[in-house]
């Protein structure tokens, strides 16, 4: 499952972080290409946040051919056999939580479809129809949060992300290096699908672009944390195939949807539990050992306070004698 992410880069930096190699001179050479940023219709905006919840608009990488269709009903056949070139990629913020094009409740229906299970996307019409239209996308984020529940039902949040490089001081497994032009964090790239809801004829409003993140069974090395994880596209070639709906058929593209362990993670503060908390403290690493010691110390302090209270004799204890008010009164007289 993926129900909370972080996305903290500005639009310009997101485009730079998505730089990739592109062929030039008929394939004789290569250059670095960057996708263009495209604002969503209707004044909807992307806001950076260390704690992103469903319903937010977040950056999504797609083929710009989706925006060249003459009508909303045109499907993948228009571009069948036509390769999606790297320069055709654009980044547009979309609402997290799929709102089907036929929905009568666009303001609320997306919250129940933030994820799309891999084993059900081709059997459920809500997901199958957009995929048949070639509406494949790549959801961009710094990383995502997941909560581990222990045997005592206590929950601990973790932040999961791509290591910056193979020389990072955290464990790194099977990670493809990013382009040299970008030296910042490597964005996570989740496989997703999107749909476009449009107001009925005669009604006011703008089209709403929304998406679901495809999820798979967790990799065996991450299954202790949670049984599900987002489908991660690891590297340019996988991203290119997923977006290239014109030449890469859906069946072949679905082969890219599988568990991966090319990530790292660290425990974070319980601040992230409340979506109102948006600060950087949400994804800073915490020391679980110190946290346990602090919790234990607090518990010991509480037990000590309670035990002192128990040593006090109750008021109805026969051994406790009330002071005689009259005796006190006479004692004050000389």
UniProtKB/TrEMBL annotation:
Residues 308-334 are annotated as: Disordered. Gene3D superfamilies: SOS response associated peptidase-like (3.90.1680.10). Residues 313-327 have a biased composition (Basic and acidic residues). Signal peptide: none annotated. Keywords: Covalent protein-DNA linkage, DNA damage, DNA-binding, Hydrolase, Lyase, Protease. It holds the Pfam family SRAP. GO terms for molecular function: lyase activity; peptidase activity; single-stranded DNA binding. GO terms for biological process: protein-DNA covalent cross-linking repair; proteolysis. Belongs to the SOS response-associated peptidase family. PANTHER family: ABASIC SITE PROCESSING PROTEIN HMCES (PTHR13604:SF0), DC12-RELATED (PTHR13604). This is Abasic site processing protein HMCES.
